[in-house]
């Protein structure tokens, strides 16, 4: 992705606390937990305002981050982690839920708009750029006239839960490929 000594900062977005653990909006936290298990680390409080764990993903130095703030205020802790680890935006990866993709669809991109995602909006504002990498996990559109904000704050359905572990694993694989193989190769493998 960048030079061999660069650190990839991988941010899983979500909301803190047990009330939100199983919400669609917390898929970034769930994938970050899977990645932490792969490197054999545990999240610990970091002075950036996030929980973090350092390790190696397929031999590449990486820091996993879960902001302790609510989703809409993720920018401060993410910018703090990026600054602390001296990571350029092109080495920042944000894992988040995506309403415009069917459940379980994984898409990887660099930059672009926030599509109404307040966590991404906060990060872009705090960093002063949208040019960071994103691993988007499809959660689908809300049924009927349900407000999208209410939908993402609901737990995954019983049907979705049956496949959730598989898709979390797949999303972690895509993130790892992005770190080790770069954007184009990861897109070719997972799109």
TrEMBL record:
A GO biological-process term: rescue of stalled ribosome
Classification via InterPro entries: Pept_tRNA_hydro (IPR001328), Pept_tRNA_hydro_CS (IPR018171), Pept_tRNA_hydro_sf (IPR036416)
Positions bearing the site annotation: Stabilizes the basic form of H active site to accept a proton: 97
Catalytic activity of the protein: an N-acyl-L-alpha-aminoacyl-tRNA + H2O = an N-acyl-L-amino acid + a tRNA + H(+)
Keywords per UniProt: Cytoplasm, Hydrolase, RNA-binding, tRNA-binding
Catalytic class of the enzyme: hydrolase
SUPFAM superfamilies, per database record: Peptidyl-tRNA hydrolase-like
GO cellular component terms, semicolon-separated: cytoplasm
Location(s) in or outside the cell: Cytoplasm
CDD domains in alphabetical order: PTH (cd00462)
Residues of the active site: 25
Entry-linked NCBIfam families: pth
PANTHER family per UniProt: PEPTIDYL-TRNA HYDROLASE (PTHR17224:SF1)
Role noted for this protein: Hydrolyzes ribosome-free peptidyl-tRNAs (with 1 or more amino acids incorporated), which drop off the ribosome during protein synthesis, or as a result of ribosome stalling. Catalyzes the release of premature peptidyl moieties from peptidyl-tRNA molecules trapped in stalled 50S ribosomal subunits, and thus maintains levels of free tRNAs and 50S ribosomes.
Subunit organization: Monomer.
Family recorded in the similarity comment: Belongs to the PTH family.
Name of this chain's protein: Peptidyl-tRNA hydrolase
Name of the gene encoding the protein in the UniProt record: pth
């Amino acid at each position: 992705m960048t030079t061999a000594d660069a650190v990839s900062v991988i941010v899983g977005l979500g909301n803190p606390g047990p009330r939100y653990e199983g919400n669609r909006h917390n898929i970034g936290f769930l994938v970050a937990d899977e990645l932490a298990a792969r490197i054999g680390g545990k999240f610990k409080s970091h002075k950036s305002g996030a929980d973090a764990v350092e390790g190696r993903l397929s031999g590449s130095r990486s820091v996993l981050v879960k902001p302790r703030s609510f989703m809409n205020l993720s920018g401060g802790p993410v910018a703090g982690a990026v600054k602390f680890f001296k990571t350029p935006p092109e080495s920042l990866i944000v894992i988040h839920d995506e309403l415009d993709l069917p459940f379980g669809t994984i898409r990887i991109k660099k930059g672009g708009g926030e599509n109404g995602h307040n966590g991404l909006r906060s990060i872009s504002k705090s960093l002063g750029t949208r040019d960071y990498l994103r691993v988007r996990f499809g959660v689908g559109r809300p049924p009927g006239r349900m407000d999208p904000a209410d939908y993402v704050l609901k737990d995954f359905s019983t049907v979705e839960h049956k496949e959730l572990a598989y898709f979390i694993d797949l999303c972690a694989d895509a993130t790892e490929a992005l770190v080790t193989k770069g954007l184009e190769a990861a897109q070719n493998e997972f799109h």
